[in-house]
Amino acid sequence: MDIKLYLTKKKDTVDKALERLVPPAQKFPASVHEAMHYSLFGGGKRVRPILSIAAAEAIGAKTADLLPIAGSLELIHTYSLIHDDLPAMDDDDFRRGRATCHKMYGEAIAILAGDGLLNMAFEVLSDPRRLKAIPAARLIAIIKEISSASGVFGMIGGQVVDMESEGKDVDFPTLEYIHTHKTGALIRAAVRVGALYAKAGQRQFMALTHYGERVGLAFQIVDDILDITGTQEEIGKDVGSDIKKGKKTFPSFYGLEESRARALEVADKAVQALKDFDRKADPLRELAKYIVNRVN
Q: For the chain, how big is the Rg over CA atoms in Å?
């Protein structure tokens, strides 16, 4: 299959769903809505919502009613990027090839824009209209999955350990914790949410869980590599920031070549987790390869 064409079509579908979910940029108070739009529609690849959609498709589900839920994953991801870029965190000036949200709108509005996106995600998830297509118990399970992945036992926990580890000689289990929580938790949740929506059986659900865990780790290993080998034009942000901040990464433990080999190995294990799925899971298989071979 043509994964680039698949990604282009799904990104367009997700973007249209996001446009319906968020208030217009001009809506009062415009400053925060403009900032939300600026970051949300600033060139993201929509990997998380697309993974969720592809997981549901792998089980044979129609995904029109999944789109708002998949969109909520992107709202949460975008909020995390806005906050991650703040001076109190990673202090980055560029994101996706242009100024970060706080550089454009100031720190206060950037914080509130991130807060707005996070809260809006749960407004979307808890909207009674979701119950027209998804039974209440399954919707609650989806909300629990996303909230856990976003919280202190997921993304936030990984961010905390990441910040507290800067400049320290941390061990590999600590690095693995950071990667599987700060980045991997929401990617894993995206796949599991698609499986929950599609009423996956237990074996299917566990296989997709294993896939999501491995794809999430591969994604972050590649990010570590690109921070060294990429250019600002390719990755859309400053390169070498991990080294400047004294962060431990896969290349700092294993070097570039071994890190590449490990990323490929983890992505291959993700594909192997889908061995009992038919061709409907091909988008997931190709997504694993795309994630490990990407240049931004």
A: 18
Q: What pLDDT score was predicted for residue 234? A: 63
b/e 165-192 (16+ beta carbons within 10 angstroms → b): beeeebeeebbebbbbbbbbbbbbbbbb
209: closest CA among 263, 145, 262? 145
Kindly compute the dihedral angle of the four CA atoms of residues 20, 93, 153, 194, in this order, to the nearest 10 degrees: 30
Q: Which amino acid is at 243?
A: I
Domain ranges of the chain: 3-293
Token pair of 137 as six digits? 């118990």
Could you write out the three-class secondary structure of 95-146?
ECCEECHHHHHCHHHHHHHHHHHHHHHHHHHCCHHHHHCCCHHHHHHHHHHH
**Domain 3-293 is in which class?**
mainly alpha
Q: Which residue has the tokens 């909207």?
A: 127
What secondary structure letter does DSSP report for 133? Answer: T
Residue found under tokens 């990407």 = 294
**What's the one-letter identity of residue 257?**
E
**CA atoms of 146 and 183, how far apart (whole Å):** 13
The CA distance from 30 to 145, in Å, is: 32
For residue 238, the model assigns a pLDDT of: 65
Contacts of 247 (CB under 8 A, 6+ apart): 162, 165, 166
Determine the 3-state secondary structure of 263 from DSSP: helix
Contact between 280 and 59 (Cβ < 8 Å) = yes
Question: Is 153 in a helix, a strand, or coil?
Answer: coil
Retrieve residue 130's tokens. Answer: 């979701």
Looking at residue 53, what is its pLDDT? 98
| pLDDT score of 231 | 65
Token code pair at residue 228: 């060294």
Determine the residue type at 68: P
How many degrees, rounded to 5, is the angle at CA 287 between CA 284 and CA 290? 160
Q: Are 130 and 68 in contact (CB under 8 A)?
A: yes
Low-confidence ranges of the chain (pLDDT < 50): none
User: What are φ and ψ of residue 95, in 5° steps?
Assistant: -150, 125
